């Protein structure tokens, strides 16, 4: 990691001493029609810091707005952990996140229902020039809620050290510099949009443009109007871009297209290369590890491959009974990762942490992979059918089943991820009961979050079960 010296600042480009000495940038961040310079960011975020300093942790409804940027930045300046809450969060999920995290206030955007917590507004034009000491590298920066196969989402505790290390590793892999203009339209409450997109930009010192939604037209415009050079997307975004040939061609002047959060289908890779002239870089990671594997800006960008371990990362493939699997490009094993970017555990969940993080520091990703003799990694699937990736969002089948069972018209429920050309997987619910599919889809959207709603609900007479009464999800997949 660069700069662990005494002058280390996580958000390096916002180092107040350097900005005050003239290293300003008029449009460091563009979001929701607002442009913020570095000195706007330092002044307004420090004013946020003054209002939250000393809090144990605060919740931020992470809409793609300047208020969110300043809320997160202000907390990082003050050393207050941020709990990003999905912008489309529903009632039950919001209640869980607030209770589990112990958030003491809402900072920035205010949700319709604050759940009894106080609200601290962010004022875009407030300024403070107070200087805060840089918090410890080991301090928690973010608590990001993410789904597991069962139970409600768990809070992943992410340190400042992990974030700085990951951004520095990626900057090297992608030749990412302050000369770039980074563009995306992804949610601001997950690793991809928030940690890599926003915090990455504020650390590297490049311009950051958020397009609101990740539409093909928005990306094309960000390249032509703002000189977007480094473009981030989940596979669904890239797939929609190649379906809009004009928008795709407009990305030609960019420097690097990066895909991640789910597998990029090879036909989408090929179409992107043909239409934009850029072979995309694909990278792999998880909330618990941040990004650990990537193809390289200066190396081979192989379709279907997530590349090599980033500097400082080690990987291994294991059989179910713990034996090493050959790196022969064919043998499949469970992927384990060791990295300076690993999380500090799940909040309040030592049991769940111990289940995935071994004492010697290997994280069990839950992904199944192949490693070639050249070190290139290919992700071939997941160990559990109950973890679904839809549009790049990680969703547990169990949490949707619980939400469905909470509806009075549902007697039994089972949820699967069905293959989907647009979303990678689409959430499909099978229900025994007498509610309408539309009612149930809305129920999940209101309880959990809109992006966790099933796209399809099928009302069935009974669920296929084995002799033990366990639902046969493989058989359900045949019913789609
Ligand atoms: C539809 N809508 C409803 C609704 N049905 N609202 C309420 N109730 C219902 N029943 C509305 C939505 O609110 C939204 O409105 C609109 O319909 C469209 O929503 P959608 O259909 O869900 O959006 P969609 O187009 O399918 O989204 C695709 C997408 C999205 C690609 C934009 O999936 C996305 O943003 N994915 C990115 C996920 C991501 O960043 N993952 C990274 C995780 S970190 P409106 O008004 O809002 O449009 C990670 C680590 C790593 O994985 O490796 O990176
Ligand atoms: P999340 O915690 O939301 O970041 O989800 C992490 C999971 O996303 C990983 O465990 C993988 O299953 C999946 N994932 C992320 N990037 C990729 C990729 N490039 N290819 C395949 N799967 C990916």
Fold and architecture overview:
There is one protein chain. The strands form 7 sheets. The protein has a 9-stranded mixed β-sheet, with helices on both faces. The protein has a 4-stranded antiparallel β-sheet with strand order 16-17-18-19, with no helix packed on it. A 3-stranded mixed β-sheet has the order 22-23-24, sandwiched between helices. The model has no long low-confidence stretch (mean pLDDT 97). It is globular. Strand 20 and strand 21 form a beta hairpin. It contains 14 helices and 24 strands. By secondary structure, it is α/β, with parallel strands linked by helices. The longest helix is centred in the N-terminal third of the chain and has 15 residues. Helix 2 crosses helix 3, helix 5 crosses helix 6 and helix 8 packs across helix 10. Bound molecules: malonyl-coenzyme A and adenosine monophosphate (AMP). Malonyl-coenzyme A (MLC) binds next to helix 6, helix 8, strand 13 and helix 13.
